[in-house]
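A favour between colleagues. Tell me how you read the following sequence-structure pair.

===
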Amino acid sequence: MQDMNATINSDNNLWLYFGTGNTQKLEDTQSGIQNRVFGIKDINFPNFQSVNVGNISNCTNANSACPNDAKLGWYVDLLKKQKLTAKPSIFKNTLYVPVYEPSSSNVCSTGNAYLYGLDPKCGRSLLSVKIGTGVLTEVVSIKDKIYIGIAGEAEKSIGQNFEAVDNLISGNAINNTSSGGSTSGSIVIESWKENFN
């Protein structure tokens, strides 16, 4: 499981986003594990309440419908032994998910890197683009642009308003207003910087 990301959406619920995938065995296609991306809401936020975590039946498959009030959230099944390579990022009401798909024909060849954009409250697909071959980093955003690094080779012509300069890919952020506009909130993080002493 990758690190989680959290936000307060326009429904005033605290949502946690994460996904699965063994990054130590990127080329593994034999595993019986179904990797997924999850969006889980805390309906008790901001109050603390002990809850029974439940299992996947407490979530809605994003291919079928948005979760109702009785569900804890949604999940998306990743196909072809795909796995997350970094934690999901949320920006302008779109959840960006960097995914690696192993090569099915030759374990010695590099697999494909995809970037998915998902609706943060329903999990439905907003974007699916092949970025290149190799492993993607976490998506970061600055103003109206998103940036992704790739450890591998970017596509010559990515399309969908993306461009690559060496191993850095940039593109226009999706402004998803279909599920109630942007994330609510009083706090908006536009960028961050970490200082090491």
